[in-house]
Design brief:
The chain is mainly α and about 400 residues long. The chain is built from 16 helices and no strands. The protein is globular, with a radius of gyration of 20 Å. Helix 1 packs across helix 7, helix 9 packs parallel to helix 15 and helix 11 runs parallel beside helix 13.
């Protein structure tokens, strides 16, 4: 496949869709254990809380290793890193499928977290290297659709398959899909063009030497707060819908799938405006998402109201992180874009882990009923942080720095 250049006239839709498929595999494998915890617990003879360490270990490894492994691979072809990392995700998922003991399963998740962090440190910036600066928002939205589909189809179908035929076969199915996508990426994803003096995606220059690094750090800090807000309630949403809203057990998977479909629709709408009015779309979407959470406890006894709000939440949630990531890629100069992608991946996983912890603390302190309102308060703070961010930094592209 020929080397891609941002000067190309044609929008690289096929390449972006291939990258989206890779993101689908990565995120499906990341969240697959969550819905299979009881099955894994029974099979391996360990407690549910111990199985919960599979999620914790994965996130901790991603946070600890993403930036270091991105730096270590800075001189390797970006496409080669994507292919190798995706193959690593598949191998780790296969190891999980055949793990004879819980210790081996933990090891599989650690290896999966390492490959996941490496994959996202490159994949998150890849779309930005394939398109012109004015197309970054649209390209990011297209590739992010892969992650959205993981929530709509990948993870729910994986959970369903696990409950029908066993958790090991669910992991095996994701492994098989990963093999297919590795081939697709190898064939359809072009290698990114290397700038004349700048190794694309590298983390070679000390961050302090690049004028865009302050912008990247601020955007990623805001991204942490946004993700915390989204996962404070999101981590325990099934429990809230069952125990507080009293929805029928069989209706919850259907509702969550419908919410995921709404999220995909929202992302499709976002892609049309992502490069024209990104800040306005971000603030409106986050504002609606925050209001939904603040209102949710008051309609807990009214199933139609709960269903409507959950669908609105799904419609708006995927928009904000996607646009923040696009802003990050747009704000970073070419030579620190790899660092920006790695820091972005770390920020997201810090937000996921912190949000789950905050949600657990909130439940202990105030009970499950008010959990959505707690998340809503954090989301309001996120909206204020984004508004402040737009005044603090200029996200117009910085002229590319030549290496010395």
């Amino acid at each position: 496949m020929s080397v891609a250049s941002r000067g190309d006239q044609r929008f690289p839709l096929v390449a972006l869709l291939a990258l989206a498929a890779a993101m689908f595999i990565s995120m499906t494998s990341e969240f697959l254990p969550g819905g299979l915890i009881p099955l894994i617990s029974d099979d391996l003879g360990v407690s549910v809380s111990q199985v919960g360490l599979l999620v914790t270990a994965f996130a901790a490894v991603v946070v600890a290793t993403t930036i270091p492994v991105a730096w270590l691979t800075r001189k390797v072809s970006r496409k080669s890193v994507v292919v190798a990392a995706l193959a690593g995700i598949g191998a780790a998922t296969l190891l999980a499928a055949v793990a004879p003991t819980f210790e081996i399963l933990i090891l599989a998740r650690v290896l999966g977290g390492l490959a996941h962090g490496l994959f996202w440190s490159v994949a998150a910036a890849y779309a930005a290297h394939l398109v012109a600066p004015e197309q970054i928002g649209r390209a990011t939205a297209i590739t992010a659709a892969g992650g959205s589909l993981a929530g709509i189809l990948g993870t729910p179908l994986g959970h369903l398959l696990g409950h029908l035929v066993g958790w090991r076969l669910a992991f095996g199915a994701i492994t098989a899909l990963a093999v297919v996508v590795v081939v697709v990426i190898a064939v359809l994803l072009p290698e990114v063009a290397k700038d004349e003096h700048v190794p694309v995606g590298s983390i070679e220059v000390p961050p302090s030497s690049d004028p865009s690094i302050r912008r990247v750090v601020l955007i990623c800090a805001v991204l942490v707060v946004v993700i915390v807000g989204g996962t404070t309630y999101g981590t325990f949403s099934v429990v809230w819908l069952l125990d507080v809203a009293r929805l029928p057990v069989e209706s919850v998977p259907v509702l969550l799938t419908a919410s995921g479909v709404a999220g995909f629709v929202g992302l499709a709408i976002t892609s049309r405006f992502a490069d024209r009015h990104p800040r306005l779309v971000m603030l409106v979407a986050l504002g609606v998402f925050a209001v939904v959470h603040l209102v949710l406890p008051s309609v807990a006894g009214t199933p139609p109201g709960v269903v409507a709000l959950v669908l609105v939440a799904g419609l708006t949630w995927g928009t904000v992180p996607t646009l923040l990531q696009a802003m990050n890629m747009r704000a970073a100069s070419a030579r620190v874009r790899g660092f920006a992608a790695a820091l972005q991946t770390t920020a997201i996983n810090v937000g996921i882990g912190t949000g789950a912890a905050v949600g657990g603390l909130a439940i202990g302190a105030m009970g499950l009923t008010l959990l959505p309102a707690v998340a809503g308060g954090i989301l309001v703070a996120s909206a204020l942080a984004i508004a402040l961010l737009t005044f603090m930094i200029d996200t117009r592209p910085i002229p590319e720095t030549r290496g010395g």
